[in-house]
Amino acid sequence: MIYSYPDYYNKFHCIADKCPDTCCSSWQIVVDEDSLNYYENFEGEYRDTLHKNIDWAEGTFKHNRKGKCAFLRDDLLCDMYQHMGKESLCTTCREYPRHTEEFENVREISLSLSCPEVARMLMNNKDIVTWKIKSDEEEEIFEEFDYFLFTNLEDIREEMIHILQNRDFRICDRFSKVLQIGASAQRHFDEGELISWLDVEEQDKVVVEKEYELLKMQFSFLSEELEILYEDWNKVLVESEVFLFGDDEQTFFQNRTEFEIWWEKSTLPPMEIVLEQIVVYFLSIYLLGAVYDENIIGKVEACVGHGIELYMLLLARWLKNEKHLTKEELVELVYRYSREIEHSDENLEQVEVLKWFQR
User: Structural domain boundaries of the chain?
Assistant: First the structure.
């Protein structure tokens, strides 16, 4: 069994009550069966409090009147943890923001960008992300697992990440090349041929005839095509759309130019590195999933699309703030966007079937 981790994985530590947006707020925490059995049979002094705060029918923790987990105290610490210890935590609470993608004899472990501390770490990371590998003697067999396709996808992903992290080229050119490889890989696979990033052709290139209309359409995906998990996120999208597209096309491009000039002079991490980290993050987690659904191009386009959407949200926030943006706001928009996408199976599926680009 091979295990891979991003190089910043072991640097993560939950900041608990210092977190700006605790993961115990508003989320429905699903409890695993082993933990439910443990809670049901618990006989300590905390039993009554424990039992009344669990929805046994749904297998979840109840919420209090503020919409937060019933075990979250006013000091933002976990009451169950305080009374029963770390070993009492269910799998979700114990593992988040750690996330594992499972393949035959491969476990790819990551940290979810939906966690504010993970978002802060990645947005402050100016280094090229690498992955650490470990292995053990365990072996497993997945039924109907296409190992040949899987190894092809691993090679393609390695090349795409190499391209995305090549800072000798502009980020838009890196995105274009990755999108072209994604289209080529899908075309070769559909034709029953060996997938290779060297066989790209003119037909695989993205064609942008009307950039303004394309960006406007892509931004509309967030409110019109995707499930909204939090009501206040809908407010962010509505006001962002007004700031972005409320005036004419000329104003939009003028704002974009000023935004990029302002960012270059600001104390924020370089914009191109921010966008690189975002797309590398999504690509590293989701591309290999094509071994199960064979949707290579959909995954590649969605990963690049996430970078574009976050760029647009940041531009809108800058305009809302009268042409200013803080590092805290950068981190906030990144983790909130990730929550809306990655905490919804429906959204994860939908972003991979949307028509992000034209060829």
Answer: 24-95, 147-350
Q: How many CA atoms lie within 13 A of 44 on its CB side?
A: 11
Give the pLDDT mean for 279-308.
97
> What is the tens place of the pLDDT at every residue in 217-229?
999 999 999 999 9
Map 67-124 to HEC letters: CEECCECCCCCEHHHHHHCHHHCCHHHHHCCEEEEEECCEEEEEECCCCHHHHHHHHC
Helix axes 296-320, 231-245, angle to 10 degrees: 80
Cite the DSSP H helix spans in 191-248. 211-224, 231-245
Percent of the chain at pLDDT > 70 equals 100
Cα dist from 349 to 129, 178, 227, 295, 353, whole Å: 26, 20, 11, 11, 7
- Using the predicted structure, report yes or no on whether residue 15 has a pLDDT greater than 90: no
Strands (E), the chain: 2-6, 54-55, 60-61, 98-103, 106-111, 131-135
How much of the chain, in percent, has pLDDT values that exceed 90? 80
- Cα 134 to chain centroid, rounded: 24
- Name the β-bridge partners of 2: 106, 135
CB 25 within 8 A of CB 61: no
Q: How confident is the model at residue 237 (pLDDT cuts 50, 70, 90)?
A: very high
* pTM for this prediction: 0.91
Strands lying side by side in the sheet with 98-103: 98-103, 106-111, 2-6, 131-135
Q: Where are the beta strands (DSSP E) in 147-298?
A: none
Q: Which residues sit opposite 78 in a β-bridge?
A: 72
pLDDT at 265: 97
Identify which of 239, 301, 314 has the alpha carbon closest to the alpha carbon of residue 272. 314
